[in-house]
């Protein structure tokens, strides 16, 4: 069965400090559009909601705009920016770099399902 939806009319929206996520759910695909404002940091903005010390969501992402620094729990680090495609496993912190909003598409599914939801929700 063909399914078509638009991110302009997401199935759900989750707000968190300095950002929000909009999710579209299709059969076999949960797609997220995440907007992170300058000053956003996972450990400060989403960590208290998730109830974990680091982000435990797997990401397959594409950066549309802005820059984000990612620090893995094992000490590995990297920075993503416009046009970058990335895979980021669970166990990381991340933050917006600079004064520009960071806009990310996430195709992994777990972000659209679980990100910024209370741990026992």
Can you give a write-up of this model?
This is (S)-ureidoglycine aminohydrolase cupin domain-containing protein. With 121 residues, the protein is mainly β. The chain has a single domain, classed as Sandwich (Jelly Rolls). The chain has helices spanning 42-45, 47-50, 110-114; strands at residues 12-16, 19-26, 29-36, 59-65, 67-72, 77-80, 85-88, 92-97, 102-106. The longest helix is centred in the last third of the chain and has 5 residues, at 110-114. The protein is globular, with a radius of gyration of 14 Å.
Please write out the topology:
Layout: E1 12-16, E2 19-26, E3 29-36, H1 42-45, H2 47-50, E4 59-65, E5 67-72, E6 77-80, E7 85-88, E8 92-97, E9 102-106, H3 110-114
Antiparallel strand pairs: 1-2, 2-3, 3-9, 4-7, 4-9, 5-6, 5-8
């Amino acid at each position: 069965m063909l399914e078509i939806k638009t991110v302009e009319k997401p199935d759900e929206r989750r707000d968190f400090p300095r950002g929000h996520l909009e999710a579209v759910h299709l059969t076999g695909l949960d797609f997220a559009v995440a907007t992170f404002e300058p000053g956003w940091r996972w450990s400060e903005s989403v960590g208290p909601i998730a109830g974990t010390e680091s982000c435990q969501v797997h990401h397959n992402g594409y950066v549309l705009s802005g820059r984000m620094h990612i620090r893995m729990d094992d000490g590995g680090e990297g920075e993503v920016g416009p046009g970058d495609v990335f895979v980021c496993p669970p166990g990381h912190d991340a933050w917006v770099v600079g004064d520009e909003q960071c806009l990310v598409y996430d195709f992994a599914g777990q972000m659209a399902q679980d990100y910024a939801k209370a741990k026992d929700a």
